[in-house]
Amino acid sequence: MLSRVADSLYWMSRYLERAENTVRQLDVTMSLLLDSSETTADTRWQRLLNALGNPEGVEWNGDQDAMTRSMVFDGTNPASVTTCINAARENARQVREEISTEQWQRLNRLYHQMHSPQAQAQFRSNMNDFLASIIDGIHLFKGVSDTTMIHGEGWQFIRLGRYLERAYASATLLEVYQESLLDLGEQEHTGYQYLELVGLLRCCTSFEAYCQVYTADLSPDKILEFLLLNRDFPHALRYSIDGVRQSLDAIQSGGGRRPPEELMATAGRLHSMLRYTTIQEILDGNPGAFLHSIREQCKHIHELIYRYYVQYSIQSALAV
Amino acid sequence: MIPNEAAIPASAGKPIDLERLFRDYLLDGAFDEMRTRDGAIRPHYQELVEKLASLPPEELQRRKQSSDLSFLTQGITFTVYGRDEGTERIFPYDMLPRLITGEEWDRIERGLTQRITALNHFLRDVYGECKILNDGVVPREIVYSCKHYRRQMCGLEVPRNVYIAVVGTDLLRLNTGEFVVLEDNLRVPSGVSYMLTNRRVMKRTFPQLFHSYGVRPIEHYPQLLLNTLNSLAPEGRPEPNIVLLTPGVYNSAYFEHTYLARQMGIDLVEGRDLVTHDNIVYMRTTDGLKRVDVIYRRVDDDFSDPLAFRRDSGLGCAGLFNAYRAGNVTVTNAFGTGLADDKAMYAYVQDIIKYYLDEDPILNNVKTYLLTDDASRQHVLQNLDKLVVKAVGESGGYGMLIGPQSTAKQREEFKAAIEANPRNYIAQPTLDFSRAPCLFGSQMEPRHVDLRPYILYGDKVNIVPGGLTRVALEKGSLVVNSSQGGGSKDTWVLE
Asked: How far apart are alpha carbons A68 and A27 in whole angstroms?
């Protein structure tokens, strides 16, 4: 597959995953703001921005309506839902011949939905429905991708983008929340604290899945364990990194070139770490530093993907 | 099974009566595709009219909306230059098919085959022995002063001697009913994807009508194109790697490039995907460099290789031309083919056909004034308000003056430009070319149309029946180019 095409598929997928993450976090933040807990709006918005990686040029200025609108519709806000969907579509447009017609139509519909003249009015009249319909659109795109595309190299790059973005976003989110989360400790929860915990889980669409595993007994340790180390839940870090590793394996075994040793090793090491560590070890150490190092490793994997598959030097390729 | 179109709910309203359907239907000197001069419906349009008259306006509207939506979600758009850079628009589309009888088509097909064969001979000759120039049939000046003449091509043997593998020729129908050639597009003709998607949408919009008309199929075009490209591969490359080279996503025909690449199952590459090494072209893949054998080029000559042509181009691939010269890669269409579709060269095509094939041209040209000739130029300058003036090297409706619709200021500008560089312009009479019925709301109105059939030339000449009918959708307009507000409709060649 052309390197440029792989690059576009990878970013198309990353941007859609990013859009979904932004929508979910916004939705949760808005719903938590309805309750008059001790946590102020300032803290919440600041935390939201931190969890989205502090997008450049976006600052919390106290105006909640303007902030939400900007996070959804502002094309100049690098983290807004619109920006991500535009970028995903632009990437898809550059590889229009590589994706299925159904994928393109799905993504195009999502794009037109964001840009339709009625979009802002729909958003104002019922924000939850609007955000839910965006998430629906993204889910449909993923479903259509899985059912209408050959599960070959292109699909693996889409999957790679999805899981790497998700792993990075989850690690960022947990890094931002872990301190306040662990402060809650073992003490008896008030209703507000319970809502906080549910909010964090809902940021990763994991409330129901958590309850299936641990019952509705919410404790910070268990939540961290679930979001970090669960093998079977698609929004858990370990699962995402496993997805990254599987896609890298599939891409590598499809090609005839020398295997990208460093890339496989980095992804494998990260996966093993999440596979064999226990939550107690993490909590006994420095959870913040642990999460930070996961983010750094995700970044490194991204750079290696580029070095091996996208921006390799011609000299090295001719030498083979 | 054919869906039953007659199953329309009773609540859908009354059918349109014929009188209303034709209320604003203008008949004048121009040839009307559907009606004779006395207003009668031509026999092959009878069924279409009956069908429309049987549908309630609401039903027509519904079908129109459903086909529009289909174009939008498929992302069938094009880009217009010079306004908001990079804005995408839906290609305007008219729901009524343009009908061509089998007999009419067979003549067109013979004429185009003859014309393309002769033009290919001409290119080979001019970049080779120059017999036609030595015999004085085509003047040397006009060849060597042509903007699209490529000195680099001289003495170069191209695979199978095919210079023009993919051609789109523009035809008009005059008020006598005769089809004539307006323009040959021998460089990078576009629009074939609209022909294919129009057909797909039409089959859904009027399935029963389509079936009962017995329309010749065109859907195999991508396969024919692939076979053509395959047949031109360099010797000793039995399983050639064929790619389509696009200028990229900001090109107005980008949709078409992606569409064709997908339909053919070949890679769509940009210049930045290609590298040359030791006169071999490679593309950068995730699995290292992969050799390229045939390039279906949708990038203009000038931008194809900064080493051979324009140095400031970032769209092409450095070293491509040398690899081509070495015979390691086929690039099609060949470079320098624009020489033969130059609008001044056009005036000589009839002579070119006679010279190489010793046959009379089957399809005629439009009368053309060469402005390098003093007497013609004087005549043209005095009659600018009646004539159409075109810059010779331009296409897509850019650089054109339509006399009867021009302002005095525009005429002054063209006069000055012509006097400064007469070789750069030609003039033609303003043509009263044919009109075909289009649907506006629930009324039919005639609009000017042309026809661009697509010709493929590999082992032999192949033309899918029909082509793209372009429509000047604005009332009274004579410009059909999509870049100038034209639209298109499906073309049905009947058995």
From this structure: 10
Last residue of a domain, one of A121, A148, A175: A148
The Cα–Cα gap between B376 and B383 comes to 11
How high is the pLDDT of residue B9?
45
Q: Does any CB of chain B come closer than 8 Å to the CB of residue A311?
A: no
Q: Is residue A28 situated within a structural domain?
A: yes
Has this prediction a pTM greater than 0.90? no
Q: B454-457 and B461-463 as β-strands: parallel, antiparallel, unpaired?
A: antiparallel
Task: State the ipTM, two decimals.
Answer: 0.82
Are B60 and B453 within 8 A, CB to CB?
no
Q: How many structural domains compose chain A?
A: 2
Angstroms from B309 CA to nearest CA on chain A: 24
Task: Give the highest mean pLDDT range of A99-103, B92-96, B147-151.
Answer: B147-151
Q: What is the mean pLDDT of residues B272-290?
A: 94
**Starting from the edge strand earliest in sequence, which strands make up the sheet with B267-269, in order?**
B267-269, B242-245, B294-297, B330-332
How many CA atoms are closer than 13 Å to the CA of B63, on its beta-carbon side? 23
Give chain B positions within 8 Å (CB) of A94.
248-249
Contacts of A6 in chain B (CB under 8 A): 286
The C-alpha atoms of residue B347 and residue B352 are separated, in whole angstroms, by 10
Mean pLDDT of all residues in A152-165: 96
Q: Which pLDDT score, from 0 to 100, does residue A217 have?
A: 85
- The gap from C-alpha B412 to its chain's centroid, in whole angstroms, comes to 31
Residues A171 and A311 in one domain: yes
